[in-house]
UniProtKB/TrEMBL annotation:
Single GO MF descriptor: alpha-L-arabinofuranosidase activity
Assembly behavior: Homohexamer; trimer of dimers.
Tree of life domain: Bacteria
EC annotation from Swiss-Prot or TrEMBL: 3.2.1.55
Family recorded in the similarity comment: Belongs to the glycosyl hydrolase 51 family.
PANTHER family: ALPHA-L-ARABINOFURANOSIDASE C-RELATED (PTHR43576), INTRACELLULAR EXO-ALPHA-L-ARABINOFURANOSIDASE 2 (PTHR43576:SF2)
Gene Ontology annotations of biological process type: L-arabinose metabolic process; polysaccharide catabolic process
Domain Alpha-L-arabinofuranosidase C-terminal residues, every copy: 309-495
Key word Zinc-finger present: no
KW Hydrolase (keyword) present: yes
Protein name per the record: non-reducing end alpha-L-arabinofuranosidase
InterPro entries linked: Alpha-L-AF_C, ASD1_cat, GH, Glyco_hydro_b
This protein's UniProt keywords: Carbohydrate metabolism, Glycosidase, Hydrolase
Length: 503
C-alpha cells in the first residue's frame, strides 16, 4: 500500500550558465572479466550470432543508442597483467594467457588491440587504453602508443601495417596503470607517483594525436594518495601551474551494502538495505568534494582533470555463476544509483571531466545482459543513460531542491539540469521507495514552451528485466502540467524522470 504523496520544489536558474557537462562523464568500461568481452562484445567470426569481425552487432546497435563517448579497456586489474603484443597479428599465432584476477581462466587473446579499435569505431566511441604498469615496462607502453597513433615509418608503424592497418588511429585517453595501490602492484603512493612521472614522460604525442594521460588515483576518499600525485607535479601555494606530465588523476568508487566479502543481493534486499544503498550512492558527492578541494589547493586554475573511471553498484554474484565473473542482475534500485551519480557529476562538472561505469556488458552494473544464443536484455541502468543523453556537452545550470521529503535526514529527491541547443533538460529522481512525490519545477530566467516528460519506474525497487520480460523496467511517457512557478510532475515511488522543454 502506497504512503500519502509528499511534495517537493526544485528551483532551476535557466539563465545562470555553469560548467559544460562533458559527454565523457557518460563513459563506459570493458574489462577482460567474465563475459564482458568474450560472449558479450565478442563472439568470434564463426559465431551464428550476427557479427562484424567477431563483434556482436546486436550489442553494438543497442549501445549506439546511448551515444557512448569513450570506452575504457582492457582493465581494470587485468590491465596490469596484459601484454599488448600478445594480442596482435594472426589469431592462430597469438599466445594464450591466464587471467589470474578473474576466474583463473585461459584466454586466447583473439580480442586484442585491432579488435578493440574496430569496436570503438563501430560504437563511435573514443578509445581509453589502460596501460600495464604493474607487470609491464615503460618501453612496452610507449611502443603501444607508437603502434596505435604514429604515422610514417618506424618499427611499430611497420608492424601495425603488417597487421593490416595502414593509417594510425586517434587514441586520446591513456591510463597509467590501474589501482596501483592494490591489484596493480600494491605500491605506496610516493613510489607510484614517481612511476607516473616516468611513464608520462615516455608516452609521446605522435602527429596530431594529443594524449590525455590519466594517473591511477585513489580508492574512495583516500586523499593522501591524491595529494601524493599532486605533489609530484605541483606545489602548494606556489604561483606556477602543475607540470604537464599527466593531465588527470583518477579515483574509484563503488556502491554496495555490507562488506567486501558479502555485499548483498542485487534483487533480494530489504527496505533498510535499499536506504543504505541510496545513502552510499549519495556519499559520492562528499568524496568528489574532498578530491576537488585538494586539487584546487595545488591546481587553482584547474588544469588537471578529475576522473572517476570505475563506479557503480557491486553486489554478490548471481547464484550458480562463476564468482570470478562478477555477473549480477540489475534492478530499479541500480537505475536510481546511476541517476543519483549523474546529478552529482553534473554539479562537479568544472573539475570532474570523465567517468566510466563498471561495466558495459554482463559484469557488475551493466548496460546489457546477453546469452550465448543471441539473447540480449537492456537493463534499467541502460535506460537512465539513454534518457540523460541530452546532458552530453550541455551547459549545467544551478539546481536547488528547496523543499523535499526526507528519511532519517536523508534527502529523497535528487535533480540536475542543463541547457543546450535551445532546450532545457531536467533530471529528477524520487528516491522514496514507498510514496509518490508531487514535484514543482520552479523554472527561473527563461520561458519554457512545449515540454516532454519521460518516466522510468517499476512495481518495486527489486524489479529487473529478463529475456522473458524485457520491458519490466522501461521508459514511459510522463504527464507534465503547467504551474504558476513553471511545471509540475508527479513521480511514483522509486522513480527517475526527465523533462525536456523548448526555450
Amino acid at each position: 500500500m502506497l504512503s500519502e504523496a509528499s511534495t517537493a520544489r526544485v528551483v532551476i536558474d535557466l539563465d545562470v550558465p555553469g560548467a559544460t557537462i562533458s559527454r565523457h562523464l557518460y563513459g563506459h568500461f570493458a574489462e577482460h572479466l567474465g563475459r564482458c568481452i568474450y560472449g558479450g562484445f565478442y563472439v568470434g567470426e564463426d559465431s551464428s550470432i550476427p557479427n562484424e569481425g567477431g563483434i556482436r552487432l546486436d550489442v553494438v546497435e543497442a549501445l549506439r543508442a546511448l551515444e557512448i563517448p569513450n570506452l575504457r579497456w582492457p582493465g581494470g586489474c587485468f590491465a596490469d597483467e596484459y601484454h599488448w603484443k600478445d594480442g596482435i597479428g594472426p589469431k592462430a599465432d597469438r599466445p594464450s594467457m591466464v587471467n589470474t584476477h578473474w576466474g583463473n581462466v585461459e584466454e586466447n587473446n583473439h580480442f586484442g588491440t585491432h579488435e578493440f579499435m574496430a569496436l570503438c569505431e563501430l560504437l563511435g566511441a573514443a578509445p581509453y587504453v589502460n596501460g600495464n604498469v604493474g607487470s609491464g615496462t615503460v618501453r612496452e607502453m610507449s611502443e603501444w602508443v607508437e603502434y596505435l597513433t604514429r604515422n610514417g615509418d618506424s618499427p611499430m608503424v611497420r608492424e601495425r601495417k603488417a597487421n593490416g592497418r595502414d593509417e594510425p588511429w586517434k587514441v586520446p585517453f591513456w591510463g597509467i596503470g590501474n589501482e596501483t595501490w592494490g591489484c596493480g602492484g600494491n605500491m605506496r603512493a610516493d613510489a607510484y607517483a614517481d612511476l607516473a612521472r616516468q611513464y608520462a614522460t615516455f608516452l609521446k604525442d605522435h602527429g596530431d594525436n594529443k594524449l590525455y594521460r590519466i594517473a591511477a588515483g585513489a580508492a574512495d576518499d583516500d586523499l593522501a594518495w591524491t595529494e601524493a600525485l599532486l605533489k609530484a607535479v605541483s606545489c602548494l601555494g606556489c604561483e606556477r601551474g602543475p607540470k604537464n606530465l599527466f593531465q588527470a588523476i583518477s579515483f574509484h568508487y563503488y556502491t554496495f551494502v555490507g562488506t567486501w566479502d558479502h555485499k548483498g543481493s542485487a534483487t533480494e534486499f530489504s527496505l533498510d538495505e535499499y536506504y543504505e544503498t541510496i545513502r552510499k550512492a549519495q556519499d559520492v558527492d562528499r568524496v568528489i568534494r574532498g578530491h576537488s578541494a585538494l586539487m584546487d589547493a595545488y591546481d587553482p586554475e584547474r588544469k588537471l582533470g578529475l576522473v572517476l573511471d570505475e563506479w557503480g553498484t557491486w553486489w554478490d554474484v548471481e547464484p550458480g555463476t562463476n564468482p570470478g565473473f562478477l555477473y549480477q542482475q540489475n534492478a530499479m534500485r541500480d537505475a536510481l544509483v546511476a541517476s543519483l551519480h549523474f546529478d552529482v557529476f553534473h554539479k562537479h562538472a568544472e573539475r570532474l571531466v570523465m567517468a566510466n561505469i563498471a561495466q558495459t556488458v554482463n559484469v557488475l552494473q551493466a548496460m546489457l545482459l546477453t546469452d550465448d544464443e543471441g539473447g540480449l536484455v537492456r537493463t534499467p541502468t541502460y535506460h537512465v543513460f539513454e534518457m540523460n543523453k541530452g546532458h552530453h556537452d550541455a551547459t549545467a545550470v544551478p539546481v536547488h531542491v528547496v523543499e523535499q521529503p526526507t528519511y532519517e535526514s536523508m534527502e529523497l529527491v535528487s535533480a540536475s539540469a542543463s541547457v543546450k541547443d535551445g532546450r532545457a533538460l531536467v533530471s529528477v529522481s524520487n528516491l522514496d521507495p514507498t510514496a509518490p512525490v508531487d514535484v514543482v519545477l520552479d523554472l527561473r530566467g527563461a520561458q519554457v514552451r512545449e515540454s516532454i516528460g519521460r518516466l522510468l519506474t517499476a512495481s518495486k525497487p527489486q524489479s529487473y528485466n529478463t529475456l522473458g520480460d524485457p520491458e519490466a523496467v522501461a521508459p514511459a511517457p510522463l504527464r507534465v502540467e503547467p504551474e504558476p512557478r513553471g511545471l509540475r510532475v508527479t513521480l511514483p515511488p522509486h522513480s527517475f524522470a526527465t523533462v525536456s522543454s523548448a526555450l
